[in-house]
Model the fold of this input.
Amino acid sequence: MNAIPITIETVAAVPAAMPTPTPAAATDVVNDVVSDTVTLPLDRQPTIRIIPMPADTNANGTIFGGWVMAQVDLAGSVPASERAMGRVVTVAVNSFLFKQPVFVGDLVSFYAQVIKTGRTSITVEVEVYAQRHRFGSEVVKVTEAVLTYVAIDENHKPRPLV
Ligand SMILES: CC(C)(COP(=O)(O)OP(=O)(O)OC[C@H]1O[C@@H](n2cnc3c(N)ncnc32)[C@H](O)[C@@H]1OP(=O)(O)O)[C@@H](O)C(=O)NCCC(=O)NCCS
Done:
């Protein structure tokens, strides 16, 4: 059998009007995925690293987007609460892009950094990378997001940054 390392999701993403991919076209898709391989940021540490489990999957068998969003929110809150020197809440998810799927067993690293501050708000960029199959050398950027947090006081009201 001529095995082609392509996921079901990748084939399913081809529009219905397109002809069934030939082996050559499928290889092109695989090559596109391979060309997305990157290296982890060397100049900073992830705020969270975690390995998703089967319980975190969606109906397709890949990792549920809501799981990724929850981890991103937690990861972004780390530099936000450090900058706020106290409690913060998420006020907005400004952008969120799922670039590649996450699979069970991937080692997923969340890198978060403050990109803007206001009177009470802190905007954080979160970049997410997956090391495929945990011990593999393939690294892909799976998600990028920007979220805004607000420093709050003990009454849950906005608190000016110092
Ligand atoms: C966050 C919260 C305290 C803000 O209260 P508020 O009375 O609306 O406060 P303000 O209108 O003064 O806005 C506070 C800051 O948020 C920013 N903000 C408000 N809405 C925003 C939006 N959609 N996008 C980006 N920033 C926003 C404001 O610009 C302001 O920033 P600045 O002080 O740096 O200029 C309040 O909306 C809240 O409690 N929301 C629920 C939070 C929550 O439960 N999150 C989920 C769990 S963590």
